[in-house]
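Hi R.,

Here's the chain you asked about this morning:
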Amino acid sequence: MTCIILSGGNGERIGGLDKAFLTIEGEPFIERKIRQLSPMFKEIIVVVNKTEAYRNIPARIITDEKPGQGPLMGLYSGLRESSSNINFVTTVDSPFMSPALVAWLVKKIGDYDAHVPHHGGYTEPLFAAYRKSCIPFIEKTLPKRRIISFYEYVRVKYAEDDIIRSLDPDYSSFVNINSQKDFQRIINTIY
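And the predicted structure, written out as tokens:
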């Protein structure tokens, strides 16, 4: 199986910084993600805008087929390059995660095209398992740019709140850093 880490954002809301290289507990986000996920996946793909900064990252680095199109293009590009039928997709700006939840999403995808957490009225499409069978439907909906725009064409299984809570009680897997304020809040809770 393959893990696809989306790291192609421009960091506009965090002052133009590449969030992959923000550090937490002395470790860049991208290295933290790869360290956490490597034991679970035979292949790790990181989808980026610019490859130069990722030269020494121990993963397969690819770029979006069409840069600047958002996470749906990142998902599409990663799935196309993946050597696996089942893939786990996450973002670089979510530094915490429950390995148990990751493993469960992948293991319990069954015959579905996607296995996506759903809690408190929110869907988490960027912390989910996807089959390569989604590719033609993502391609069809790329102009919409909304990450869930292809869901109406595929079979989606939703992981409900009680299961998520049992595997990730504090929902840490869904905490992401969008701004300097978010980053500072995370740093303040750790130190």
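Helices lie at 29-37, 71-81, 99-107, 135-141, 161-167, 180-190.

Let me know if you need anything else.
M.
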